[in-house]
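tl;dr need the bound structure. longer version: we got a ligand (adenosine-5'-triphosphate) that a collaborator sent over and nobodys looked at where it sits. i said id run it. heres the input, straight from their email, havent touched it
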Amino acid sequence: MAADDRNAFEVYRDRVDRPLGRLFREYGAPQAHWLVIGMVANVIARVAGLIPPVVLGVAIDAIFTGTGPYTLPVVPDVWLPTEEDAMFRLSMLLIFGSFVVTGVFTYVYGIAANNFAHRVMHEVRTDSFDQMQRLDMTFFDEKQTGEVMSVLNNDASNLEVFLDNALQNSARLGVMVVGIAGVLVYYNYELAVVTLAAIPLMILLTVWFMRAVEPRYVAQRSVVGDLNTALENALSGVELVKTSNTEDYESERVADASHSYFRRTMSILRLNFVYRPGMELLAGLAFAVTFAVGGYWLENGAPGPFTTELTVGTFVTFILLTQQFVAPLAEVSNIIDQYENAKASCERVFGLRDIPVRIEDADDAIELGGTRRGDSSRSDGGGAGGDGSARRDGGATPAEGGDHGGVAGAVEYDDVSFAYPENALMDPADADEQVLRGVSFSADPGDTVALVGPTGAGKSTLLKLLLRLYDVTDGAIYVDGHDVRDVTVESLRSSVGYVAQDTTLFDGTIAENIRYGRFTRIGEDGDPGDGDGRGSDEESIRERVIEAAKAAEAHEFISSLPNGYETRIGERGVKLSGGQRQRLAIARVVLQDPAILILDEATSAVDTETEMLIQRSLDRLAADRTTFVIAHRLSTVTDADTALVLEDGAVVERGSHEDLLAEDGLYAKLWGVQAGEIDELPEEFVERARERHVERAVERATESEVDSETLE
Ligand SMILES: Nc1ncnc2c1ncn2[C@@H]1O[C@H](COP(=O)(O)OP(=O)(O)OP(=O)(O)O)[C@@H](O)[C@H]1O
């Protein structure tokens, strides 16, 4: 049991410090020019918006009532006209001009602010996706795909809204408050005190609101996670849901999660319902009090302690500017909402970013099949048939196993141990349940090695290590004499073809699915080493795809489809049968032409004819490459050069089919059961398997208990 029940993503998310500051440093800085242009344009547009009320006030006093001079803030008096007609024309021009300036700069601001926000969002999304792709399988084993989807979609969008709206609205608010306060104080500081008295009250109300709403946002986000998980489970397991008749149960789960989300959202909105009208009320009060005090002042002279004179024009300016307060203040609750969302999103973005990438190229990694470095290659190796003491040269040459991009395909496991870390945070060396223990064997280029053993013995795990989906916790794996950790992950994985039991197909055409990985994009040749001199233009790729499909015994069924190779297969290939999907996967590997092949033999029953087709294509595929077969049917083993019998993570028997039968151990018993010679496995084997299953079931139950506690 992990000491910390949070998954890696949550742990790193909770560690993120000052997320928005980091966002600006890491993503905002390269786009800072857009932000600066946007801010400046915004300030100009807002300041220009203050001109009409000011000019109107001055014009009233100077032209209509004749009670004041024609002066404007920051404009020298000598520049201003003294004739009433000229004053009127200038006033009209200034009012009209200010609207034009506001319009033009609002446009500039829109372009710049959106450029800034969308560019940052694009970088955040693509960076997060790249980081997600670099993470190793331990991360994905923790079932965090929902969280990642949310980072790539919702969180990137939240940041965009914040960077565009919230940031610019706060700038606008700042300009309005400071600008309006400045103008009011300039014209009549005494009446300004009355008008601006509402501001400290608004600040107090805002502080209260932010403090009260923050924990509610945290609670809301946690239920969003539950809701997403419920939705994702129901969608990804739709077949199970239907076949188990659990639609009602799933509906209830989603309804529960959705209802908690509703409750949490309402608790935020209830505060909003107090805050927003509260702010509007204060702004309205400021307006009403200004009107009352100013009106009294005009009628009866300065009230109470006030001594200055108030003109009608100044009064009009005050009234109009106080009105302008209201709209941006009403935005404050939206700004807070966007700020809270952005902060949380930013934590998630950087949480994902900070998860250490464990499986990546070493600084001096070499290309497998490329130039060999003496210091990273081994000079000895253990024989599959022996106990590991017989060593041979590990650095086989391509000539020994056919040319597959210069990789021969010699594989050696040297005393390999492995334990799955409980989560992506744990150092695998600290995990205590060893899934593989001291496994040593080697396969020469072109050999076929069958892996046999009861379920859970570690067969799949053994081969996942060869693909470096995980790294060994102890020992080493060598391909052509190179430790797999010393070669680039890309060159290693392109040298190892993998046909899984359950084939993954992408939404796209049949042809696109076959060429996925080798000619994913037109004009790209992931493995130029086949030496047939053919180009990678669309026509020759098409030819190769058809050849691969023929080799995989898939050409016939593909040709019978309405659009042949251009037929689109539905999401996850649901429109094809299991046997057809597997043949497409085989065609994909034929095209990849790897030196090493991993076949996870299908357990699902296909009809005899399909099985024969699949077997024939697999035999063809395996002919000139090092092949590892996870053999569920022992008939496969009879054709293999060597079989390794795994039990509980260790190789307990090894040798050819005949040798193993002669040993009369686990293999002979498994063979006996399959061949129908004995009814069942001897009690000791069954007992051992049962113990392991019970242990695992208990573990799973404990885990789900903890999960449900966390949910509560
Ligand atoms: N991603 C994982 N995280 C943690 N434990 C795992 C993971 N995958 C497999 N295991 C555990 O490792 C052990 C070996 O599993 P593995 O899938 O390698 O066995 P296998 O021999 O291939 O079994 P099968 O024949 O049923 O596919 C099992 O106990 C399994 O529960």
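gonna send this back to them w/ a short note. The CA atoms of residues 276 and 330 lie 6 Å apart.
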